[in-house]
Write a structure and sequence with these properties.
The chain is mainly beta. It has one domain. The chain is built from no helices and 8 strands.
Length: 97
């Protein structure tokens, strides 16, 4: 079981490389053996950062996501991963690894 922090943020509008701006929405989820999803949703073009503490989790990002072990993205304990250019209404689902 891990505590997973999810932030949704826009992107800086100029220059390269592109970095997320200050988060406009954030949410913490506790993982388990069942898929858990954020209630917060991305806006078109958002960057989503997922940070896991207390265990590794599998991550799925979609309009109505269901995370499944062994699929999509693995975020290890203590790690953070940023996903870029979300679609409007995307959510994050997690499940224990």
């Amino acid at each position: 079981m891990a505590t997973v922090h999810v932030t949704f943020s826009g992107a800086m509008s100029s220059g390269a490389p592109v970095f997320p701006t200050t988060p406009r929405a954030k949410e913490a989820i506790t993982s388990s053996g069942t898929s858990q999803s954020t209630t917060a949703e991305a806006k078109s073009g958002d960057f989503i950062t997922v940070t896991s503490s207390g265990g590794a989790v599998w991550v799925r990002i979609a309009g109505t996501p269901t995370a499944a072990a062994g699929t999509d993205w693995l975020v290890t304990d203590g790690a953070a991963m940023t996903f870029g250019r979300a679609k409007d209404g995307d959510k994050v689902a997690i499940i224990d690894a």
